[in-house]
Amino acid sequence: MVNAPLSEALKRLRLSGLAESLDVRLQEATANRLEHLEFLELILQDELAVRQQRLIARRTKAASFRDQKTLEDFDWDFNCSIRRKQVFDLAAGGFLRERKDVLLVGPPGTGKSHLAQAIGLQLIHAGHTVLYRSIFDTVRDFLHDEAFDGHDKVMAKYLKPDLLILDDMGMKHLPKRSGEYLFEIIMRRHELRSMMMTSNRPLEDWGKLIGDVPAATAILDRFLQHAEVIQVTGKSYRLRRQADPAKGKSKPTEK
Fold first, then answer.
1. Average pLDDT over residues 58-74
2. Sign for the pseudo-dihedral over CA of 137, 125, 83, 89
3. In 3-state terms, what secondary structure has residue 160?
4. 8 Å CB contact between 67 and 252
5. What is the pLDDT of residues 191-242, one digit of tens each?
6. d(CA 156, CA 145)
7. Is 91 helix (H, G, I), strand (E, B) or coil?
């Protein structure tokens, strides 16, 4: 049994993971006659494991995912056009090391948002930082904070993470100056940190969506230079859910 002075010392050193497992580890050491170094290694591994779990939890919260999707939850048989290996290769993080970008394009409801968030979550578990925002939230962030002279602070938020996910491009037309904000983000992250975007509309429609054809052309020219484009086709999960509520319960709404 851990005594009070030792418990207090562990608390002051912020070794809560070690403190939680120490009683069990002491019993294990006695029962198995562990060497001192073996015992020390075990209790330090316990502390490191707890710290890693907390780091993942903090980074997941900071990512601001709309939903915590996983690749295991994805219905690979529903839309067979999606290549599982290609998605899992992205989740392995090679494109981050190469500072490449990713664009998922396809009709609404075909799983783009699910895949983007699931890849982001997998990369967090691998030690990376991620920020997820819808394109509407992104524009709103800049419009709101620019009114209070906070442009640099907001931009820093979008430049810092290893992966920036911008979701829902094409759901509706964007406010004026959206093209300026989006181009600045892409330009300043280009070849430094990776981005992932999803779009419900073909690339030729981006000029109309942004309301600025030259800006859209510049955005696509820069973004697609080192981007992997994934065409997502097939049926809509949402329409399946409406047609068969029983199946819809097993798979939440996708985008």
1. 94
2. positive
3. coil
4. yes
5. 999 999 999 998 999 998 898 899 999 999 999 999 999 998 877 766 565 5
6. 12
7. helix
